[in-house]
């Protein structure tokens, strides 16, 4: 957490430095003022012009460590005729270009993506078989299987989105070139991941309640379970989307892992896993 806060402090200092650097630079007529997009500093330009800058190189925490040397990987920012940055965002489309287009002789990304797709497909088949059994054989209806069904659905959604996110490496077309579609896929992927973890937590919660609190009760509090499994992740993801839209509105939310808002997603995940792990340890004791 401290490391993330340090990164945010550095980024705020970079923004102040960027704006101060160009505060005295103006143009005749309409122009766009200097802008900081959390990665690059954009100088003022006259209305109707477009700027190109090398894409930033980021480490695993989203910290800028240099510029991408590839000449085709460029970030774009345009100023409209009224002196306003178009969309008030930087277009990083060229920064997330298909890896095969840049490194056609490298098979590693393709092999990794192929393994992910094959493994995910096999998992999807087994999950579909499980869901068929859960829904077809009504005699198996019970609280635990109802939780299993929801967990399977969450995992199924996550695997489908994992295949979708791997598709640009295996095909020539890429959904990442479409801003709203790219963000929608990322949002759903985050939601399904958090929902999967939460339904695993509900599995442990149900087991705990069965051997302690509700040992003689047949009905489980499924309204609470649905709120934990589906509702709470929706709230977290919704808040995350709003914060990212207003404070880090880059193309496809590039570099989202380095923003402090990611803790709205990873925080609940870590908490659920720690609580569940603690519960497992207690049962073993």
N- and C-termini, Cα separation: 32 Å
Number of strands: 8
Number of separate helices: 7
Question: For the residues shown, what is the average pLDDT?
Answer: 80
Helix percent reads 55-70%
Radius of gyration: 23 Å
What is the strand arrangement across the widest sheet?
A: 1-4
- The percentage of residues in β strands lies in 5-15%
Name the overall outline.
Answer: elongated
Order of helices and strands: HEEEEEEEEHHHHHH
Structural class comes to mainly alpha
Q: Sketch the major β-sheet.
A: 2 strands, antiparallel
* Contiguous uncertain segments of 5+ residues: 281-285
What does this structure look like?
Pfam families: 7tm_2, HRM. The chain has helices spanning 2-21, 99-102, 108-136, 143-170, 179-211, 222-247, 263-284; strands at residues 31-32, 35-36, 41-42, 45-46, 50-54, 56-58, 64-67, 74-78. It has 285 residues and is mainly alpha-helical. A two-stranded antiparallel ribbon has the order 1-4. The radius of gyration is 23 Å and the shape is elongated.
């Amino acid at each position: 957490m401290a490391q993330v806060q340090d990164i945010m402090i550095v980024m705020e200092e970079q923004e102040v430095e960027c704006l101060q650097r160009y505060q005295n630079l103006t143009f005749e007529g309409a122009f766009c003022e200097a802008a900081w997009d959390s990665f690059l500093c954009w100088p003022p330009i006259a209305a109707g012009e477009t700027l190109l800058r090398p894409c930033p190189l980021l480490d695993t925490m989203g910290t800028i460590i240099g510029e991408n040397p590839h000449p085709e990987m460029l970030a774009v920012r345009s100023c409209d005729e009224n002196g306003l940055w178009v969309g008030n965002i930087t277009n990083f489309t060229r920064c997330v270009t298909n890896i095969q287009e840049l490194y056609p002789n490298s098979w590693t990304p393709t092999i990794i993506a192929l393994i992910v797709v094959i493994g995910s497909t096999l998992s999807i088949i087994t999950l579909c078989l499980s869901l068929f059994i859960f829904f077809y054989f009504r005699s198996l209806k019970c609280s635990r299987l109802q939780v299993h069904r929801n967990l399977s659905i969450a995992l199924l959604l996550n695997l489908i989105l994992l295949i979708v996110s791997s598709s640009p490496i295996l095909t020539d077309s890429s959904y990442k070139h479409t801003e709203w579609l790219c963000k929608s896929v990322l949002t759903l992927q985050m939601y399904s991941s958090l929902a999967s973890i939460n339904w695993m937590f509900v599995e442990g919660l149900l087991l705990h309640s069965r051997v302690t609190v509700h040992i003689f009760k047949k009905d489980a509090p499924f309204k609470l379970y649905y709120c934990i499994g589906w509702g709470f992740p929706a709230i977290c993801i919704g808040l995350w989307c709003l914060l990212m839209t207003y404070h880090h509105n880059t193309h496809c939310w590039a570099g989202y892992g380095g923003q402090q808002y990611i803790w709205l997603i990873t925080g609940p995940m870590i908490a659920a896993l720690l609580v569940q792990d603690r519960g497992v340890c207690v049962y073993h004791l």
